[in-house]
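User: I'm putting together a teaching handout on how multi-component assemblies are represented. Below are the sequence lines for each component of a complex, exactly as they appear in our records. Could you produce the 3D structure of the whole assembly as structure tokens, so the students can see both representations side by side? Please keep the chain order the same as the input.
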Amino acid sequence: MSRSPTLISTGTMPDHHPNPVYNARIQEIRLPRAYSFRARCLLLLIVSATLVSATDWRAPDAQLARKIAAATGPGAVALEVTNRSSLSQADVDDIRRGLWTELAALGVHSAAADQAAATVEVSLSENLRNYVWIAEIHVGNSEPSVAMLTTPRTQQPPTGERPLAPLTIHKALLWTDDNRILDVALPTGSPQIMIVLGPENAVLYAAQNSHWQVEQTLTITHAHPWPRDLRGRLLLRKDHLFDAYLPGVLCQTTTVAPLALNCRESDDPWPLATDPSALSAFFTPSRNFFTGALSPSVQKQTAVAPFYSSAPLPRDKYTLWIFSGVDGQIHMLDGMTDQTSTKWGWGSDITSVRSGCGLGWQVLATSRGDGAGDTVQAFEIADREPAALSAPLEFGGSITALWADSENASAIAVAQDSETGQYEASRLSVTCNR
Amino acid sequence: MKHRGFPLLVTVSLVLAVVAGAATRPHYGGTLHVGLRTAPTSLDPNRAESVASENLFHLIFDTLVTLDDQGRPLPALATAWQAESGSQRWQFSLRREITFPDGTPLTPEVVVTSLRAANPTWKVFATNDAVVIERDSPEPDLPPELALPRNNIVKREGGKIAGTGPFVITQWDPGRKLVLAARDDYWGGRPFLDAIEVELGKNFREQMVSFDLGKAQVIEVAPEQARRVATGGERIETSPPIELLALVFNHDPQSVADSKQRDALSLSIDRRLLNSVVMQDGGEPAGNLLPNWMTGYGFLFPVDPNLTRAQQERAEVPETTAWNLGFDANDPIERVLAERIVLNARDAGLRLQLATGPSDVRLVRVPLTSLDAQIALTELTASLGLPQVKIKGNSVDDLYTAESALLKSQRVIPLLHLRTAGAVSKTVRNWSRARDGAWRLPDVWLAAERP
Amino acid sequence: MSLRRKLLFTLALTAFLSVAAVAWIISALVRRSFEHNNEERTVALVEQFRRDFARQGEDVARRIGTIASGDASTRMALSLSHASPDYGAFLNEARAIAENQQLDFLEFVDGQGTILSSAQWPAKFGYKDTQAIRATSKDAFLKREELPDGAALGVFAIRQVNVGDRLLFVLGGRRLDRDFLLRLEPPPGMRTMLYQNLESGFSPTLLINSSGLMQHADPVAPLIRQVQQRTREITALVHWSSNTADDESVDAIPLTGLDHELLGILLVGDSRRPYVESRRQIRTAALLGSAVGVALAILLSGWAATRVTRPVEQLAQAARQVAKGDWNTQVTVTSADELGDLAESFNRMTTELLQQKEQLVQSERVAAWRELARRLAHELKNPLFPLQLTVENLLRARQQSPEQFEEIFRESSSTLLAEIANLKTIISRFSEFSRMPQPQFQRVQLNEVLESVSRLFQAQLRTPDRAAIECRLELAEGMPPIAADPELLHRAFSNLVLNAMDAMPQGGTLTFRTRHEGEWAVLEVADTGTGLTPEECERLFTPYYTNKAHGTGLGLAIVQSIISDHGGRISVRSEAGSGATFVIELPGNTDKLPADQVAAATS
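Assistant: Of course. Below is the structure of the complete assembly, with chains in the same order as your input.
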């Protein structure tokens, strides 16, 4: 206690407004069409992150240098920088260089510890929200003084994509959000637009200057609270822009301008595939799975055990439907038999894509990866046994959605990053390994 | 030719798939059995024993505001808020269509009554759809303060309490058992679990027995046991260091000699060995009250012992006072900690003796109650029985100044910041903790069987 | 004290003394036997303790040996090759092993004495215990062990573990505590206590027995202090309470450590209760025996009384009756022994006495009749002689001088009448004596009666025809009234006055004195006359006895009769020439008063 240094100067980047305001992202009354505050921040952040490859430390460098110089005065100083934070070594070097530049401008120059008039220990620390830079300044034999400043922590850039595999699943990061992403759809056409389905709204983005800009936010209205592990599916339509299926709720865009979203309580079955065999299934309104009732049927089979997801594999004369059951079993329905298996190690989410490789259609199935995240792997079913065709594609967290797009050409996967907690939506496409 | 590259890959992948296990969507249903050491006789968040029951409050009640893992306020029962008059007057808009388990709606009046009960000095009143809180002085930290356990919104009627949380109480045997059922109409989404059964008042050993027998799926593990239990193959979840272990004096130093003895005591204690040996790395040495991850400046406070200086300080005192060191005699690890402190103090020539009765200095463990550093410090000092801390501004250096002043008053000698640990059954999925160690049980779901 | 009591007392005392003597002898024998036994038992227990101690030491040494050769010791020794040992890894190791091996103390110490892991004081890792590793003995030894809450005594053993050039000591032991004492299992009546000599002087909190801390340790303090001073075995009698049954003979054995320092004192207590109880039983038996003996003595004496003392008592009773005048008393002769002879002799004696008495009475009666006849003759002769002379004178006058006859006849007839009257008087007095009435009791002030008598005689005493007699009254004041017949008393006192007047022809002093002695009223009538000879005194109250020239001799007999009828006594004391004093003692006689006068008499 007796050695705790005295604080000689204070200074920080402002942390709050004089009159702080918090408005929930879900604007129910006052701002029905306003953009989400946080999504806006996030968008700006992502934009800025893409623009600036390395963070600019000049401002905090200058601020800390001024504080150090104020305590030591011009002259020889021995300065040591210790990293106690998550900053990379490159950043630390950058900061050290920047500090010396700023100190030199204030008449402070470097010296060995035994020749310096003062020694300064700079610690680059961090707390929950900010980097905390602390300079402990020892001049002579007096009690050390402390200078401190805080600067906001930058978002960690998203982890890079995984390497390619022989039959490769390509993952293209589409969107990142703090809030849950249920599905993403990319209608063809120009200008390119992207629809991101969230729990409370569907946001339309338009590509402008290689960046997505919010075009419109369509609020989803629902009378009952959403269940946990909320799922939703976007299906592009020809006569109107899209349908959004949510538990107990069906939302459809208007067919005429202006674009709006009409939601109603509905127990309509969710389309499992549009082509070639249009099959729908009923979704439990307050849960996260399909009841198992099929509409119309897989030939004579009208029901299956409750399931989370399905994947059609068209064969020459029939379509083999694979269901990932709530009970952990995989059900294979060919119109006649219901064959089950538990040993494949597949997760709850499966879908199928038409790649043209191999048998033409592959199942994309989730499973638990070696690391913190889930993986997606492509399989073919030959002789009712799965055969892996690709290396597992790893995600930074658990996969919360895996839907084929309306054409079954590619799949949309949403994963929640286990470190940042953010949701990342990616487009998965399978290409042949030639 | 198309298939030529596949066979090897297939083999590898099959193996991988079997080893890796499935990435399953959450299952609804099931009852989670939880063991807790605390034995509250009341579930009212306003009661003094509430700190240890915080994990239960999250299940039954909601606050107006919650904090994210960086300590930033997020909307909960309040969807928006606004400060006026230089943060002295705050207006919180309430989420609509929130109901209590009995179907009655959450009204601003209920919120006002609840907040007034928890904060008698506040001026709280209701407007149309909002709650207004007026403070005597500007309070920029009011939203995080509303996230404190005591500010859970509670409806008290005829001796019964109710909350708007994700679970509703179906059985309550005070101090022994709590059974909760999921609310289908919870505004944050129905929990995956159907029910949670909490066995209360079970010590670590009893909890571990229940866990080993499969009778409990989530239990607490003593921080010093976490490493050993983990090496036994159990799934151990630990929090960041969120509990302060400190020596607290009953009163301010009475003399220069007293002050020097306290200095000597602080300098004599080898916190690193306390942590690495006695607590089995169940925490971090602490030179100050708030953990470093929360403040960023914790390393400025020395934690290493300095026996030479301790002996010097001691030598300047003509005659030392013998201090009674109080500790929780029911906690074996506290006994070892206290014994070690006595030994360390003896090295510096100080006279400490263990006491289970009245004491001059106590070994205490106080959990952090907020992820907001300022609130956390204020609550911590209140829990330790120290004078109200004055934090000038909102910056980290104001916090540092306040904490330094607090430590200079020599009422408290921080020793360690301890983690809390829990063992979680492998059938429990999507287990997570908030940064402050609180369990997020509404997100948890149970796998049908062990993988 | 009666013969029977004497017999009873003698017999009872004899019985009691014999029983007491036997009890004392048995008690002394028991005591000697007990003490001998006690000594033997103490020696045996001390030996047993030494063996147990050694056995426990061996057990501890064996367990330490097991631990030293175990994996944990090897691991710890190996960890010593690191710069700083991982204390954390071993923190609970010692405690777990100690629990497993049922040891109270266990420490793993490196070659420099640094504690790696401690069971008894887990927090002491990293600290030095250099004292411990000096012990090189293979055997167990006694050691003082510092603990967080004080110090304790233990039986320790130490083993050395060598892994490569690394040296590890395993030091452990068992606490000398109540469990240790429990394991000693002393024989019944004996117990062990342990004083842990952990502080200088005596502290009651350091004395334990097999049930824990001793509540009442002070009585043993002097013994412990003695052992502390001398460090040698001492035996003493300890009084735990005022009840001697709680006394204990305590043998204090010093227990020393490696440096021969006094670490503890083993106290082997042998309860005196069996001895005290057997002594108490003997005493009770003796008392009971005495009581039985005394009771037997009473019975025996009762029997003896029937056989021996009853005839004697009958004799005594008979003698008392004889003494009372019941001459007819006879004793029943029940036995033919000496007592029978005695009874027969007694009966013979009373028979003879009765015969003699009857003879005496007859002779006295004859004498009295003779005396009466003589007195009657004398009394009657006296008037008869003048009568004869007068009649002869008349006859002569008729014959010789008829002229003078008339005158002589008148003179002679008057003389005749006077003498006949005199005869009548004599005859009436005899008649009166024979008709003495029974007294009519009433409340009487004796003094008043005397005053009345003195007044009556005042004139006669002062008549000029004779020498004057002075009457003096010396009456006690406050004389209680008595029950008596005043008429009779008056007559009796008058007789005494007349008697006194006769005794003082030349005059003198007549004195009445009264006094009271308890219930009795005492009256003295003293004259200053000629006095009486002893022979006269003896016969004074015999009827018709008189020493006077005239008189019937009935005066004093009447007095005695009256006094006797009042239950009183009369006596005379006199010496010739110096007067006589009659002493009359009268009882209160309140029981003879009619009921209506009792209250007045006693008030």
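A couple of points students might notice: Residues 176-271 of chain C form a domain with the Beta-Lactamase fold (CATH 3.30.450.20). Chains C and A do not touch (no CB pair under 8 Å).
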